[in-house]
Amino acid sequence: MTAADAIILAGGRASRMGGVDKPAIVIGGRSMLESALAAVAGCVRTVVVGPHRPELDSEIRQVREVPPGSGPVAAVDAGLCALGAAVSPLVVVLAADMPFLTDAVIVELIRHATESGADAVFAADESGRPQYLTGVWRRSALAAALKKLDSPVNQPMKALVPTDTVTVTMPGIADCDTDEQVRRARAAARTVDDGAVSEVGQQPNSPSGSAGSSTSGGSASGGSASVPPASVPPASVPPASAPPASVPPASVPPASAPSASATSASGEPASGGPASATSASAPSAASATELPLGTGQPAPESARYRSPATLDEARNMLRTRISRLTAYRADLHSVRGAALAAPLSAIGPLPRFDVSAMDGYAVAGEGPWRLRRDIGFAGGQRPVGLLTGEAVRIATGAHVPDGTTHVVRDEFARVEADKTLHRLPGTPLRDDIRRSGEDRKRGDLVAPEGTRVGLTLISAAASVEATEALVRGPVRARIIMTGDEIRSRGPLHAGQTRDSIGPVLPDMLSWYGIHTIARVHLRDTPNGFDEVLTAATDCDLLVIVGATGGGAADQLRSALTRADARILVHRLRLRPGGSTVVAELPNGTAVLGLPGNPFAAVATLMSLAPALVDGRTGAMPQRALTGPLHNASEIAGPVPRVVPARSADNGGWLGDADIRTAHLGGLIDRDGLVIVPAEAMDGDRVEFLPLRA
Asked: Model-level pTM?
């Protein structure tokens, strides 16, 4: 067999399984990662890309794609770099989510790669759909495909697929992407263990496979592949679209020998993109402010016209009912906007060693002292130990020499011509040494779970050598601007207006630690949102501006129903912002639907974004800024309002009673927004949402 190295993708976000560590799920007595490792046991070198797993053999290289969760192509790129200089001409690329994969499948793929000379050979399931995360690549072709990309981040595997490919239909390559698929896989594994099935390996209810010829890009690539029955894996898991099994496990039909008919590459890439995780603890029952899971039918009238949620209710819903992102280990510098998924403890003491707290003289014993010629500098060589009666010049932060009893500050000292050091009369006696561990000892808590990753945490953690931590996030957002009437650039035509909010939304989202990965414009079409929602697997949040109302062009709500989205916030009891909708797609991606008017969109975003980030990352809610609104009675009405405000000279704020929502001109020379409760009176305390530069 031609030598091959292996890259196993063991990261991802378990988008439909509550954020669990999917490769660690045990089926048939071993984890899916163990199945993948066993399948590539014959490879020369193996790299596992994903969170660090201390239980793996030291010979297995472990790396993480950068940034974490940035998709399968970024993971493949990290894996290929970790393999280093070329040793083997072939590279196996494998996702760790196939519980019934065997080494026989890998051997067969390598055989086809060797005999066909194709750039890549991919396994195909019984339907003929190629699985791009189960394949064997010619190393040079894989490196060339990666080099052609501007960036590997958030790219689909299909972006790598070369022209010269072969697909080989193989058994046991169906993946487990849902809890239901895991349940059926475990049932199938138990069936085999109980001896109820003599031959397995075929998907339930699928026709028996037959051997056939293989073709590659129109040219012959070899004969049929035949794997001995003893090495055929247990029953594959039905695809995600298959209905739940309604027959006992024992009635799974026996499988025939695997089919090895190969066809030219086609179809969509296999699942495994970096979708955000659905929390296993997220309640499934509909509440007073959420629609039931979509059924592909319009929502009932009682749900469609449900009472809007108050802002407090909406925030609480987002913090407690939206699914958490998957936790992973990362360098803190690379994940600003994330939140700690576990308490962070000091790796080393602070200070690391005894250091001088002041510029002055390290001395031993009582004075006067004989001043030595050497000097201690911060970061420099530590002076040799002091004998009683000796002193040495020392700088702030320098490691004090052994034997030092205290430091005498420059302003408290006098040096005679004969190099005798005296303490000035009447000066206070101070130690002026920062002792090792006096600020933090090894193991001390640096920050609790839920702390946001920002400049202060990064700095505090670095001071005790805790540069890496378990985190969730940061939230990655895709912005969708809607409406035929708006245009970002170029001359305006009849009926068009300039997009005045889309260009500034990424900066506004960054205020809350949200990273924007793309901003696109969606035309008003009946099914445009269906495509947007279906493709939302490379982000944690869709921010959609417009199409949230009930007008003829407002298609978002019906699309959410067709997508089986779980509605968290149906509408808001807030002005502006009443048409806001927040939902969660079955793949775990959150959807924040904002009103189309620029000020309404900004006001709603600023009101809800912090709670949404808290819910996704598990961050602790920040303290609200509150103070008196001196002219509240001019602004308040029967419904809470959000209006621009400026700081008052005597503290608190003055709000704008009248505001135009079609543009953001009203925010010029304002310090932020205030949320004015219904029927508020002058001087009542209100919440302040600061605008940032």
From this structure: 0.58
